[in-house]
Amino acid sequence: MPKEKKEAFKNTGKVAIYPGSFDPITYGHIDVVERALEIFDKVIVAIAENEEKRPLFSVEDRLEMVKTIFRDTPNVMVDSFKGLLVDYVSKTNAKVSLRGLRATSDFEYEFHMASMNRSLSPQLDTLFMMTSKDYFFVSSRTIKEVARLGGAVEGLVPDLVVRRLREKFKLPVAKRKHLGWDD
Ligand code: PNS
Fold it and tell me: Rounded to the nearest whole angstrom, what is the distance from the C-alpha of residue 183 to the centroid of ligand 1?
């Protein structure tokens, strides 16, 4: 994290950490960040370097995409972390971990994670925000599957992410033309 940004995030206002894999970031994630900025002074988007999840995009690629997307949003800082979230949070002045909830199916996983984090660090609370209705069906996993199979993900992820997905899932020229990717 650049030194100036680190300084700016010390002891100033209410800070929330928004942790996740962001593999890749979707408009669902962006919607959560934008709404969180109405409540918090600053939001730290913390990208987990979870290699065991075998991410499609390297942490460097994910950082680059998320930084580009929020480059004109001064109250958002983008960083990555390895290891436990609570250890990363302890290096910041955030007291809240922010997570989006799409449907009841997310609840059990989120409840376990929030409870484990609270057991590890009683100072850390998890705040859930319901995903907006336009994005409740959007997840990084389904975006990757649809993109891999040549489906359209425009409108669900930023254009930059659409381009990166196309680069990752290079399709044969005939299929690209058929899908209108080369127009
Ligand atoms: O976007 P994801 O994959 O649902 O995010 C999950 C994430 C990265 C927030 C979670 O796996 C995490 O916090 N990983 C860091 C390791 C950790 O702290 N684990 C203990 C919590 S169960």
Answer: 39
Local structure of 92: helix, strand or coil? coil
Instruction: State how far the Cα of 127 lies from the Cα of 95, in Å rounded to an integer.
Output: 10
Mean pLDDT of 14-31: 97
Show the tokens assigned to 27.
């408009």
Q: How many Å apart are CA 132 and CA 23, to the nearest integer? A: 20
Q: What pLDDT shows up at residue 111?
A: 95
Query: What angle (nearest 5°) sits at the alpha carbon of residue 7, between those of residues 3 and 10?
Result: 140
48 C-alpha vs ligand 1 centroid, how far in Å?
7
Clarify whether 53 is annotated catalytic: yes
Q: Tell me the CA–centroid distance for residue 154 and ligand 1, in Å.
A: 27
Give residue-wise pLDDT tens across range 94-123.
Answer: 999 999 998 888 899 999 999 999 999 999
Confidence of residue 158 (pLDDT cuts 50, 70, 90): very high
- For 123, which DSSP code? T
Q: Flag the least confident range among 34-38, 50-54, 158-162.
A: 50-54
Using alpha carbons, select from 89, 29, 100, 38 the residue that is nearest to residue 65: 29
DSSP assigned state of 132: P
Q: Name the catalytic one among 21, 97, 139, 140.
A: 140
